[in-house]
Each structure stands twice: as C-alpha cells, then as structure tokens.
Amino acid sequence: MAMRLRLLLFAVVFGLLLGPLASSETVMVPMKDGVKLATDVTLPASGGPAFPVVLVRTVYNKAQGAGVAPIFNAAGMALVIQDTRGRFASEGKDMIFADDGWGEHQDGADTVAWVKQQPWCNGKIGTWGMSALGITQIQMAPATKDVAAQAIIVASSKFYGQTAYQGGVFMKSLAETWIHGQKSDWVIDIWKSHPAYDAYWKGFNAEEQAPKITAPAIHIGGWFDIFQQGTINNFVTRQHQSGQGAKGNQKLVIGPWPHGPSKRLGDLDLKDNFNKFDMNMASVRFLQYWLKGEDNGIMKEPAVNYYTLGDVVTEGAPGNEWRTADDWPPFPTKATSYYLVEGGKLGNKPADTKGSATYSYDPKDPCPTKGGQNLTIPAGTFDQREVSGRPDVLRFATEPLAAPVEITGHVDVTLYVSTDAPDTDFTAKLVDIYPDGKEILMLDNVRRLKFHKGFDKPEPVKPGEITKLDIDLWSISLIVNKGHRIGVQVSSSNYPRFEKNPNTGDDFPKDDKLRVAKNTVYMDKEHPSAIILPVRAEAAGK
Predict the structure, then answer these.
(1) pTM, 2 dp
(2) CB 260 within 8 A of CB 227
C-alpha cells in the first residue's frame, strides 16, 4: 500500500507540472460472461487520433487515474483504468484476483481485446501498476498475446508460497487482514479451505504459465517487500522460459525497501543512496520504448539493478550500494553451510557429539512478529532482542567475523526436528548481529511439519520421529561486515505474520483445542542442521 500511495503522489505532482488533463470518459466494458466493468479512458489533449495505451486494472478505485493519467498523457499515451470485477463501480462479485487470469473468467484479457478494438488505440497496449495492480498484470499476462509491455511493481508470482500461504502456513497478517480490509471476507474462507497446494492454487501460479507469456516487462521490488521472491521469480521465469517477445526482454530492480521506498527500515536508517534508482522513471521509460518505439537506451542497459545491503553504522563499511548485472543471480556463489551447534554456536562443521535443544511452544503465547516482509504490520530490519530471549526461541551465532562475508542469492535452512504433538511449525530467521549486540532481522520464514515432503498433501510425522525439514528464507544481497556475527534463530511461531499452529493436527487454531508442543532441534553429524548461504565464490575460497 505504501508504494501505491507514494507513486500516486508522484503522479499527482507531475500532473500539476504537466498541465490540465484531457477529458475522461467512463465506459462500462462487457466481459465475455456479460458482466460490465467500469473503465475510465483518458486520451492525450493533442495528437492522435490513435495512441498507444497504458492499461491499469485496480482493486482500489479507478478514480485514482486522475493522478496517474498526466504522466502517460504527457508522454503521448492514453490511460485506461478499470475497477476490477465487483470493486467500486464495476459489476459482479469480487473474488480477489480469481477472475483476472487464465481461468473461467479472463477479465484482463477481455479488457485488452476491447481496448485493441477502439479507434483511439493504435494497437500498442501496455500495462502498469503496483501491488494489487501488479498482480492483475501478472494474472493477465498468460491469457493474452496482445500486451506489448508491462511495468510490474511489487507483485507475487504465485499465491501459494507468497501471498496466501508460506511454508504451508496461512499468512494471517497479510492475507486475512488485507482481504478483510477489502470487505471481501468470503474469500478468506475460500483460501482457508485450501491449506495444501491444489488445483485452486494452480490458477494463481504464473511461474507455471511462463511459456504462454509474450510481453516484455520490468519487475520492481524490494528486499523487505511481501512479494520479494515473487518479483525475482517473475523476472527469472519470464526471462528464460517465456514465449517469443518476452524471453530475454525482462528487467529486474530490487531495492532496499519494504513495500515502498523508505529511509527508515525497522530499527535502522538506510544510507542516503537507498532511493538513488528512479523506479518511477524506469517504468515510464520501459513503456515508452516498447509502446512508442523511443530509442531511449533502456534495453541497452543491464537487465538487473539491485541494492547490496551492508553495515549502516560503520563508516566505509562494504555494501550499501546499487549494482548491476546481466541476470539473476548476478555472479557465481558457493553454497556455504553454517551448522547449528549445541550451546548456541554456528560453526563451519557439524558437532562430532550428539546434540539437541528442546523448547515448549504454546499457541496461547506465540512468539510475536518483530519486523520482516510485512504489509499490514511494521516491516523491515527490526532488532530481535525484544523476542529472541524467550524460552521458545533458540539462538545461534558465529564468532565475530575476521573479514566481511558477502551473501547474494537464495538462502535456505535445514533442520532435523521432532515433536511430541500431532503437528507443529518451525520458524527460522537470518540475523546480522552488530558488534553492539543488535540482532538485525534480514530474512525469516516458516514450515509446517506435516508438509515436510511437499505442499501437495500433508504427511503427518509420528510424535518423537526425527524429520528433516527445509525452510525457504527467500533471497538477499548482504555483506555482513567484519566484527559482526551471522545469526540464526529458530522457534515455532512468528505471529501474526504467520498463523499459529494449534499443535493438534488441525490446519487452523480453535481456542478450545490448543495444546503445548515440546519441540526439539537436533544438531550433529547425523543431523546436520544448518543455514545454507550463497557466499560469493571468490570470497568463499579465501
């Protein structure tokens, strides 16, 4: 939401500078099933009679187009902005993106087909938008070949794993709170009725649809955004697996932000260059190139722009800079394991002797969320000491680093665990521990034990049985400075970012059916629990 508001403010300011808007017309555009969607059309005040068109499909009220239209109109492009099905002035029932993709209803593709037939459209149609407006673009892309380019800002590539569930756990503060805010609570019940990855969720998995996509796109996100991994996956799958026109014509921007640029990031202040890359202008330039044929050089620039995080306190610390690359990941890395050792250490090899740590997880007193990739609750790099001292949190850390360690790419945690309950969860966090003791959260995620073999169907683990459990922490580009320590924190709850596990085997907690789970993490040669970091290859070899 924050990025949406900032970009709209940006648009309004530019609108004032660019002069008065051309007149806007509202049209009720029929979909194939007869439902009509309210659509505003704003044409440039001069030129024509036909123009390239930028289409925006929004859940947040098409009236916002009054702020966005001046940018595109001044660049010689028409703006078409539409309320999605069941939202504001549009007919139908809101099903939260279910009608925007390649399913029974294909409202995005139907709208593109309508735009193409209009006398004011010259045949070149692009799309633009952020957050929910980015998701409508992602859903649309596999269903039509008539989109010439897309500017997609903070959007997921699939709902199961990024938007509704992560690690098999319902994303309470994101999914439930956001949908409730849209006054579409019936969708919460639908999402909760699909706790495993099934045919319903395949309808929201754009990664699997990549070969059908033909549109070039710029994908813009942030390391602490709710859709961080989705932004990366959208770029990678479309850059390498998509159809003619899209393959090789994707751009990726990953900044040091949550859901929108902000210098204050949790408990830290970013360096002044945090917002040096102008993502607003990059998206406009991208559309100008593909819709108007302007040779503005954007496709000659590197495919990837990303920010490498670093120590923001020590002057001259490595990192805290924008970098470019031709692809993602940007350079070779070595998968480097840091092993959990009994007593709270992270070592370069597992312990020779058997070791373990046991704690009690009580769903009546879950570990509170403190930062991370959030939307409806505070996001970013918060100090974890407020929660990490709890008895249901295990803390591990390296010795102070003798030299910086550069981590760029995908991060995973492997745990060997058991529980005395019918089911439970395990969470993991990557923290950058500063010399003064601050435990700064960089990545976190969760995994439900009964989904240890995959998310298609639950396979409960017998109480007391030791099981290997992989937790996907998503991605990062970070240089942990010398004198800092790399930390890992393990627990069984992170609430309300993730719904709490009742430890009963049920998918969702019921207040009258909660039990305490005694959970154990094993750490030795037979059970090499570890965090696996993508360390820059040349640094890893030193």
Answers:
(1) 0.95
(2) no
| Cα R_g (the chain), whole angstroms | 24
| CA–CA gap between residue 52 and residue 30 (Å, rounded) | 21
Chain position carrying tokens 């044929």: 293
Per-residue pLDDT tens for 257-312? Answer: 999 999 999 999 999 999 998 988 999 999 999 999 999 999 999 999 999 999 99
Which H or E element spans position 295?
Answer: none
Nearest to 447, CA basis, from 377, 357, 519:
519
The most distant pair of C-alpha atoms in the chain lies apart, rounded to whole Å, by 78
- Tokens of residue 455, six digits: 């998310």
Question: What percentage of the chain has pLDDT greater than the value 90?
Answer: 93
* Count of positions (residues) in the chain: 542
Query: Identity (one letter) of the amino acid at 272?
Result: D
Rounded to the nearest 10 degrees, the angle between the axes of helix 107-117 and helix 132-140 is: 80
Q: State which H helix or E strand residue 19 sits in.
A: none
Domains and CATH numbers, the chain: 2-163+204-325 (3.40.50.1820), 333-540 (2.60.120.260)
Q: 347: part of which helix (H) or strand (E)? A: strand 345-347
Question: CA-to-CA distance for 63 and 527, rounded, in angstroms?
Answer: 57
| Lateral strand order in the sheet of 250-255 | 24-30, 36-42, 78-83, 51-58, 121-130, 149-153, 217-222, 250-255, 304-308, 321-325
